[in-house]
User: Fold this.
Amino acid sequence: MFTVYTFGDSILDCARYNQFGIHPGQLVVRNDDERFPEFRGQDLSSRGPARLEHRAQDGATVASLPRQAANLRPEGRVAALLTVGGNDLLRGLIRDDGDDIAAFAQALENFVRDLPIRPVLIGNVYDPTFGDDKRNFLSVEPAIGRANHRRVNEVLADVAGRYGELVDLHAHFLTGDPSWFTATIEPSLRGASEVRRAFLGHLLTGAASG
Assistant:
């Protein structure tokens, strides 16, 4: 049995943002062939027994991660999917000009280092404005916001490089359009599938497919 664990925020826990209650972890394990026929046969269940242990929670920050990992007892083949940082940005890091991002980096490293699951696939933070300053929805100058967004993504890439593998949601979502989002920043149904697409490629071709 291959078990996929999800940790983190609403990028992975976005079921309440679409009418079908679908989130990326579900689609990674078993595709919804009716709604996403292009992914028929492209899921973990098509390769053998697979299950999902969904622990990600909408609204989570890096401080939430240890609680999500409580009472873990991984057995057999496993992989972890992790998305975090977006809510940390919204709650203050977007304006950071001091040590807060360094504290975020240390907390993230502590969590991933101690997580008893490998591989761990870490998604970075996407940009719902598609790089267009006219779409800025935050009360901070775009230049400051983008610089700190970049710094958080650099932290995620660094930790992923040392403990796991980076899933570049930021780059992938820049190829999309506003239909990938709902409620300004949350993945829509299409967005949930696109998050799935980004993670699934790593799961099917990377170390987790062995």
Summary: The two ends are 13 Å apart (CA to CA). The helical segments are 24-29, 65-68, 86-90, 100-114, 142-163, 169-173, 189-205.
